[in-house]
Design brief:
Blueprint (H helix, E strand, L loop, with lengths): L2 E4 L5 E4 L6 H12 L4 E5 L5 H12 L3 E5 L2 E5 L13 E2 L4 H12 L4 E5 L2 H4 L4 H9 L3 E4 H4 L1 E7 L6 E5 L4 H12 L5 E5 L6 H8 L3 E4 L3 E5 L12 E2 L4 H13 L3 E9 L6 H8 L3 E10 L2 E9 L7 E2 L11 H9 L4 E4 L12 H11 L3 E5 L2 E5 L10 E2 L5 H11 L6 E4 L11 H10 L2
Parallel strand pairs: 2-15, 3-14, 6-7, 10-11, 18-19, 22-23
Antiparallel strand pairs: 1-23, 3-5, 4-5, 7-9, 8-9, 11-13, 12-13, 15-17, 16-17, 19-21, 20-21
Helix pairs in contact: 1-2, 1-3, 1-8, 3-7, 5-7, 9-11, 9-13
Bound molecules: shikimate-3-phosphate (S3P) and phosphoenolpyruvate.
Shikimate-3-phosphate (S3P) binds next to helix 7.
Catalytic activity: 3-phosphoshikimate + phosphoenolpyruvate = 5-O-(1-carboxyvinyl)-3-phosphoshikimate + phosphate
Subcellular location: Cytoplasm
GO molecular function: 3-phosphoshikimate 1-carboxyvinyltransferase activity
């Protein structure tokens, strides 16, 4: 489909089972690939990014079966990955490329990691430099800053690294390299990004010492480690956020997203929506495997502007495009700061969010590390032609805007939503027609 045309919705109602979390789905396959047995993963995200991870792991000689959202991974142990006969295609997925680069840095095989045009334009020095400091032999275009990356697996040293940016991909790449290291690896600095890697590796029997200041990983001393980890993947809060904002900005709405991951490193969007005055109810809070989950209901709300900055940023980085739509419909100004990481995503999301919101009648000023949005004082966007630039989060953010915009909204390249949210467009129709 080259474009989709949408109109405002009369109402939004229903229970939306958002797909499994993308970060946890990637990790469940990658970590279990080097475990000492087989694992069953349910509610796996079948988005294109996680399917890229499965394809790469299979190319490394690991049996992975997939039947809809149920995946079985037959782990080969830390010594068992096979050298692939071709390059590994990570598609659009930064998580796939960066986590695999870290894991493969310490394996006795040669691999080349590449991806689509967007992924090949994203910075990789952030993983290449720290991995090299641990002894990794890794190179790529632009002195190692751009994929394709060539990884000549070698002995990895223990040591320490100070993370300058709060990136879970960098943190995880280093921890995965450390699994094959000759001694403990300590990470300091910005370790406050999503912590699924730490939770899952701990659940797989590895020894991690975690304090607010540092993480130390001890390489496994027994071949039975890591143990396989079967799990049900909780719902993805980054996907649920589209429905939370849709319900908050629409004047006749109530949407519930059950079973969403409520890991505190992921709940920044809920905190911001609450600060903006959104009516949010969280029920049925429980633990699923290593993660807290709960059911989130959001109702029509009157929103006011807020500040999104500092430590909040890593807790909602992927939700900024949809939070910008909420800000455009609020009363007063919203300022996003400290979010220069947005420029290193599938698109430069400071530039592309500002462009799209302006086309829809929003008042947005991009800044070097974020944006200023002067709200329209209510759901007063107007339909327009908007670009998704093949960025899944933009395609879905503009679809939510269309639900309250006047006239018709045409979104180019809507299929990119399937990178993280297969079924998004069907659900968009469903919530408008639920009784
Ligand atoms: O580790 C992960 O699963 C992810 C980390 C984040 O990226 P950074 O590590 O670049 O912040 C996020 O944007 C991405 O969607 C998923
Ligand atoms: C940035 C994202 O993913 P990745 O870095 O894995 O491509 C995203 O899903 O918004």
């Amino acid at each position: 489909m080259s474009s989709v045309t949408l109109f405002a919705a009369a109402q939004l109602r229903g229970i939306v089972d958002v797909p499994g979390d993308k970060s946890i789905s990637h990790r469940a396959v990658i970590f279990n690939a080097v475990a000492s047995g087989s694992a069953r993963i349910t509610n796996f995200l079948t988005g294109a990014d996680c399917l890229s991870t499965i394809a790469c792991i299979r190319a490394l000689g690991v049996d992975v079966t997939q039947d809809e959202d149920e995946v079985h991974v037959y782990g080969v142990g830390l010594q068992g990955l096979r050298e692939p006969s071709d390059v590994l295609d990570c598609g659009n997925s930064g998580t796939t490329l960066r986590l695999l680069a870290g894991l493969l840095a310490g394996m006795p095989i040669f691999t080349v990691l590449t991806g689509d045009a967007s992924l090949r334009s994203r910075p990789q020095r952030r993983i290449v430099e720290p991995l090299r400091s641990l002894g990794a032999q890794i190179d790529g275009r632009q002195a190692g800053d751009r994929a394709p990356l060539a990884v000549r697996g070698t002995a990895i040293r223990g040591g320490s690294y100070h993370l300058p940016v709060a990136s879970a991909q960098v943190k995880s790449a280093l921890l995965l390299a450390g699994l094959g290291g000759s001694g403990p690896l300590t990470l300091t600095g910005r370790i406050d990004s999503r912590d699924h890697t730490e939770r899952m590796l701990t659940a797989m029997g590895l020894e991690l010492e975690i304090t607010p200041e540092q993480i130390t990983l001890h390489p496994p001393t027994h071949p039975v480690l890591p143990y396989p980890l079967s799990l049900r993947v909780p719902g993805d809060p980054s996907s649920a956020a589209f429905w939370w904002v849709a319900a908050a900005i629409h004047p006749n709405a109530e949407l519930t997203t059950p079973g969403v991951c409520l890991n505190p490193t992921r709940t920044g969007a809920l905190d911001v929506l609450r600060a903006m005055g959104a009516q949010i109810e969280i029920t049925n809070q429980r633990s699923e495997g290593s993660e807290p989950v709960g059911d989130v209901t959001v109702r029509s709300s009157v929103l006011r502007g807020t500040e999104i900055a500092g430590d909040l940023i890593p807790r909602l980085i992927d939700e900024i495009p949809i939070l910008a739509v909420a800000a455009a419909c609020a009363e007063g100004e919203t300022v996003v700061r400290d979010a220069q990481e947005l420029r290193a995503k599938e698109t430069d999301r400071i530039a592309t969010v500002a462009e799209g919101l302006r086309a829809l009648g929003g008042h947005v000023e991009p800044t070097s590390d974020g944006m200023k949005i002067v709200g329209l004082g209510g759901p007063a966007l107007r339909g327009a032609q908007v670009q998704s630039h093949h960025d899944h989060r933009l395609a879905m953010a503009w679809a939510v805007a269309a639900l309250i915009a006047t006239g018709e909204t045409t979104i180019a390249d809507p299929d990119s939503a399937a990178v993280s949210y297969p079924g998004f467009w069907e659900t968009l129709t469903m919530v408008q027609h639920a009784p």
